[in-house]
Amino acid sequence: MNQVQATIADQEFVLADDEVERLLLGVMPEPIGEHYVVIGGRRFPPKQVLGVVTGLDRADFNTHQARRVLARLGFTVGRRSTDVILAVPEGVGPHRGREAELLRAYRGQWVAQRGLEVLVAADTPQAVLAWLERHNQHADAMFRVPADEAEAGGSAPA
Amino acid sequence: MRFAFKELPGTKNDYLRPAVPVQVEGISRAPQLCLLDTGSLHNRFGAWVAEAAGVDLAAAPEERFGVGGFVTSARRASVQLTLGDTVWEAPVWFCDPWPLAFHLLGQEGFFRWFDVRMRAGAYEMEITPEH
Hints:
The complex is a heterodimer of chains A (158) and B (131). Chain A contains six helices and eight strands, in the order E-E-H-E-E-H-H-E-H-E-E-H-E-H. Chain A has a three-stranded antiparallel β-sheet with strand order 4-3-5. In chain A, strand 3 (35-39) and strand 4 (42-44) form a beta hairpin. Chain A has helices at residues 17-23, 46-54, 63-72, 98-103, 125-134, 149-153, and strands at 3-8, 11-16, 35-39, 42-44, 76-79, 110-114, 117-122, 141-144. Chain A is α+β, with helices and mostly antiparallel strands and 158 residues long. With 131 residues, chain B is mainly β. Chain B is 9% helix and 57% strand. Chain B has two helices and twelve strands. In chain B, strands 4, 5, 6, 7, 8, 9 and 10 form a seven-stranded mixed β-sheet that branches. Chain B starts with a strand and ends with a strand. The chains are: A alpha+beta (158), B mainly beta (131). Chains A and B meet through helix 4, helix 5, strand 8 and helix 6 of A and strand 2, strand 3, strand 5 and helix 1 of B.
């Protein structure tokens, strides 16, 4: 367990990585702006996470403070504008396997995708549609990422 | 209209599928990924789509048939579909269960409306509306 002490908006907090993961379990990530933090294999806006775990109003801290605290806890923080996949797989396909690689983390889930980016992933299609509506987002495509060969098979040969 | 094949992750190998995003009337925020399935006579969609789109299936008779290695129950309704700028109305069989990752576009509900050219070597397809 990784634990850090942080002062945010003049208040002292002791935060632990496993507690952050637990609190975010049932939370749907909001749309990602420029910055994100990876928690439990999902990307969240850093301010959303810090707001959830501290109970503070998001106006009480900025993105950089949130990033700093979450990075100290050991979570991966990133920036979408510079988020270029360096290890591009040498696969086949229109994206050389990059799209399949990005979707691999969402196997068995419903996703809404814009370009190659996954806007939202959820266990049910209804949850995906509700998220798009709630956040006024439009996707390019929605589907279930196949969990096994049967789901990807369709009527076409593999 | 040109569309790239869809890359989907697999266990042993990844999949490349000729699938396109089709907007179903009533679900404007999320076009549904549909496989171009030349082996299918009709359009087959997951039943949840009808409920989300507000398509009333109550009066439609139930049919049972096999699709892609499983048996499902389906009810038919005529639905407005959009691909790119092209809008057409076609019968769709809404199926439950529906364990596939995508929906299926078949001959009567799709291919008779479009000229489809596959370029599998380039992982793309070119689709032109028939007039």
